[in-house]
Predict the 3D structure of the following.
Amino acid sequence: METEIIVLLTTLTAVALFAVGVPVVLCLGTWSMITLYYTEVFPIGNIGQSAFFGLKYFSLLAMPLFILTGDLISAGGISKRLIKFASTVLCKVPGRLGVTTIAACGLFAAISGSNSATTAAIGRIVIPEMTKKGYDLGAAAAISAAGGTVGVIIPPSLIFILYGVLMSLSPGDMFIAGIIPGIMMVAAMVLVSMMLAMIGKTNRDGDPEVFSAGSVAKTAWDAKTGFLAIIIGLGGIYAGIFSPTEAAGVVVAYCLIAGVFLTREIKFKALFGIFFASASITGMIAPIVAVSITVQETLSVLGMQQIMAEALTGVVVNETAMIALIMAMIFVAGCILESVPVVIIFAPILAPIAVATGMDPIHFAVLFVMGSSIGFITPPYGLNLYMASGISGAGIFDISKRIFPFVLALILVWFTVATFPAISLGILANI
């Protein structure tokens, strides 16, 4: 049987399995095994070796550590203190609860590195408060879902680590390149929240509270554990004291000590549950990473990169159009897949094509992750939409109707970063 027909049939099989709810790791593994068996591009026995060695990257050790960090921040009360600080600073801003939610997501993202953890941790606290103040439940959930998108852009970032391992790029360089784009995403969503409040699409939170420097100072002091976590993690990385993986370990140790002895909100008997929850998430992601190495090798041997490059070259007329088409493909993929499989499947194919047009690989990495992060809040498969729905009780359709102003704002930021590479590369160029 011709190789093309085999690949087509195995791809259709994997898609069908995914459509009926089979876990993505089994879909990717099935595709890779069947393709290798019938095409004999290299021995099928290599699958086990590839998967095993694919998990031996030192950088990947940061993945379970940052997942644990997010759970410790939430359980230790650090996230509540960050939200209170943001609320006090922004007390006179229209739609202050919505704006506070976005700002708190940005602060939380600077410690946790996960979109779903950011949405869940912040949403559980602010959504009930927003509904008490008169916010529509769907609007409150939508704001929390949108704020979570920066969880994988503002460093540290689990997806940057995965992308770096797959594409042999420095996670530290990608962390630095994601700082300004992440801040821009937060600023864009803050403006959207303010505009929606001013035109009456969300609640204005009543009369503005009185701004007090004393209150700001008090809440800042209460939130010092969160600020110190950011300083230890990011400051250690950028000062050259820690690698991203080492920083993850140090931040986990700090958050554990802070939660048990400083905020005293983590009890020793609760530690098992926290560690188990983090391990469960790691147990879902790690097999996908292992299988992804085999998928990447299979795609490479089949010449998928060259095939895709030739196909794209045949429909575009210049490099700008090529990048625009690649970004469109990333956006569409993000709408129907979670970010991990998007990176696994498309990064090895699209990144070399983008670099061949003259784009810096770090710049493209930021664009790739930004595009996939927007997919967190786009139907039909928007992970943050389902997360916000689960913690709030709001319907997916209700949240989706209210999310589009944020989607449009993030797309505008995305194209701005694509147009001006210095936004992501400027800090790196001066280090």
